[in-house]
Amino acid sequence: MADSVNLDDLRIREDSSGRKGRGLLVLLLLLLVPGAFAAGWFLAPAKGRAGPGGGIAVRTVAVTVDGAKAAAHGGLSEGGWIEVPSYHPIFVTALTSGRVEELLVLEGTRVEKGQVVARLWARDLEDALRVAEAELAERKADLELFRAGYREEDVAKQRAEVARLREQVSLAEKILERTKQLVPTGAASREDLDRDASAAATAVASLRSAEEELRRLTSGFRKEEIAKAEAASKRAEAVRDLAKAQLEYVEVKSPADGVVLERYVTPGTFLSPANPRVVSLYDPTDLQVRVDVRQESAGSVAVGQKAEVSVAAVPGKTWRGEVIRVEPLADFKKNTLQVKIRLLETDPVLHPEMICRVQLLAGTEPADASDAPREIRIPLSVIREEGGKSYVYTVAGGRVRRTEVRLGASSGGTAVVLAGLEGGERVALSPEGLADGDEVTEVAK
Fold first, then answer.
1. How many CA atoms lie within 13 A of 403 on its CB side?
2. How far apart are CA 216 and CA 150, in angstroms?
3. Which one of 72, 220, 356, 390 is at 20 to 30 Å from 281 when CA atoms are compared?
4. How far is CA 59 from CA 79, 332, 359, 432, in A?
């Protein structure tokens, strides 16, 4: 028969040190479990867990108010771009036809009034000027001749011719008279008489012509002839001046100070009255901003309204502006109305066609900072959008209230409140799941 087994011998026996270790372990567990529970309670999201009073625990944040200027007429903040006003750019044009030989500027080049920006081919115009000058010299010489009259030598020569013809007339008349006396006696025939009579008449006609020429030479040119010569001289002078001006126009000069905005030609381009543009200029101190404002906000924009303009190239910096025009014609396709804002400050960093953002302001900033409009701001995380409207959940008296707000510009993670809050209220920081009238326990952020 097998040996009997003593059960006392199989029991695990503990010494005094084992009992002490188990006691320490139990004590440690008793301390860690409540601590872990407390830590989980504080680290868990505030919304959704019950507070000490039994309501939903929510973290809240105070609505801040600062002394900065409030947004104007709805606090519009719109994107736009910098442009050259409609009365600019200034077009630099060629005043004569010709082919471009040199183009002396590039886009962005600053030019002064009278500065040469391009030159045209001048050889043909130089030849035309020389021809015009020669023609003018000829016409002036003719005019001087008419004004001075005939030379004394010509007059003396004509007088001598008149004297000679008078002698011929006297001789011809004597011969005719003698022939008349001889015809009755038969010493001369009728034919001789006719011949001598014709010779006498020819001599008289020559004398009369010579005497008329002598009177013309001694009296000089007629007033009409001198006037005609003067007109021809003036016409030749005008042609010369035009040729000279056209030669000067081969240097295309800027009519004003400015910066080159765009080039329209390259060397070799032929310019004509139908295509005279060389470059265009703009005044960097005279720029404006175009903003397409949504039509539902157009009523809050007015001429004279102040604005602040910013560009991505210089973060944090703004330039002052002023609304100078609201275009009368809206864009029904884009549902916008075009607004022009004149930049009151200049900066080399601002260029035409640069994208910018415009914040419309409420008039001018008061001289006393204490009189400045108060600007109310809330974090973007407290805002909920429903049905095209914005809401926040304010916390007061242990309950939340769903409050509609009208918002303005947003920046730096906050938004401007234009209506709905007075400032100083506390709003739920994470309003998901909250409903109007919920009982809550406020946990300040």
1. 21
2. 9
3. 356
4. 35, 45, 32, 12
User: Which of 254, 322, 310 shows the shortest CA–CA distance to 282?
Assistant: 254
438 CB neighbour count, 10 Å cutoff: 19
Query: Which tokens is 145 given?
Result: 């001749």
List the pLDDT tens digit at each of the 445 positions of the chain.
Answer: 444 445 455 444 544 444 555 555 545 555 555 554 444 434 444 444 444 455 677 777 777 776 544 444 346 788 999 999 987 789 999 999 999 999 999 999 999 999 999 999 999 889 999 999 999 999 999 888 887 777 778 778 888 988 999 999 999 999 989 988 888 888 888 898 899 899 999 999 999 998 888 887 777 777 888 889 899 999 999 999 999 998 999 999 999 999 999 999 999 999 999 999 999 999 999 999 999 998 888 888 889 999 999 999 888 899 999 999 999 889 888 889 999 999 999 899 999 999 999 998 865 444 444 444 567 888 888 888 888 888 888 888 788 888 888 887 776 677 888 888 877 788 887 777 788 888 877 765 5
The rounded distance, in Å, linking the Cα atoms of 376 and 233 is 83
Q: How many other C-beta atoms are found inside a 10 Å radius of the C-beta of residue 207?
A: 20
